[in-house]
Specification:
Layout lengths: L7 H19 L4 E2 L1 H8 L3 H9 L11 E2 H11 L6 E6 L3 H8 L2 H4 L2 E8 L8 E2 L2 E2 L1 E2 L3 H8 L3 E4 L3 H13 L4 E4 L12 E4 L2 H12 L7 H6 L8
Helix pairs in contact: 1-4, 2-3
Length: 226
């Protein structure tokens, strides 16, 4: 199976299936029908069956999917049946939160290196991490053979950091910086910008501005996202 033959929208749903199945397993369920899986996700049972059929046969009609077995298969398909080390650049408020976040390790990911350019942070210990000078980025990433990177820098620094990560061998980047990165097409990039999702919601919510909104917005120039 060539991963590039699978539609990205299908790949995007696989982690949702895996997460929901893990919750079902925690509830003590040993089987789960495509209808129940779809109900929990807001996805049609037919779509779930179609998605999973691209990777093989995982259940029997009328009996549902064996939860534990499908979890194992999805982890194999997503290559999270192993631990992926990651390099984090940017140890501000967001970066520190990411270092303390325990959810990565529970799902097959581990921050192994953390970098910043602030002299007051370099050499400091945060939990089990010692913050390294970003000047050592390429050397450290190559030495640790890391293929995943996380960017939690201001937007103004993100492009340069991403290019340096790619030069060091990183092939997948999760960016929290509010800017679109210009990278070769073979580099996989995912973006997390909560403001984008909030703006999508406010489109539907509507409402009239309050009296002090105009003054407040005047202090936040549109082009400033750092």
């Amino acid at each position: 199976m060539n991963p590039h033959d699978i539609p990205p929208v299908v790949v995007g749903r696989l982690p949702l299936y895996l997460r929901t199945l893990c919750y079902a397993q925690q509830e003590g369920l040993t089987t789960l029908s495509s209808h129940e899986l779809g109900r929990r996700l807001g996805i049609s049972a037919a779509q779930i069956r179609k998605d999973l059929s691209m990777f093989g046969e995982f259940g029997k009609q009328g009996t549902g999917y064996p939860v534990a077995a499908l979890i194992r298969q999805l982890r194999r398909i997503l290559h999270v049946d192993r631990v992926w080390d990651m390099a984090l650049v940017g140890v501000g408020a967001l970066g520190r939160a990411l270092l303390y976040y325990q959810g990565f390790a529970k799902r097959g990911f581990r921050i192994a290196l953390a970098f910043d350019n602030d002299p007051h942070k370099i050499g400091r210990r945060i939990g089990s991490f010692v913050i390294q000078d970003v000047a050592r980025l390429e050397e450290a990433i190559r030495g640790a053979d890391i293929r995943l990177g996380m960017i939690a820098t201001p937007a103004s620094a993100a492009q340069e950091i991403a290019e340096r990560m790619v030069d060091a061998g990183v092939r997948g980047i999760l960016s929290y910086a509010p800017i679109h990165l210009q990278l070769p097409p073979e580099i996989k990039v995912e973006y997390i910008d909560p403001v984008i999702y909030l703006q999508r919601m406010t489109f539907y919510l509507g409402g009239q501005p309050k009296d002090d909104d105009e003054a407040l917005l005047a202090t936040m120039p549109c082009g400033e996202h750092d």
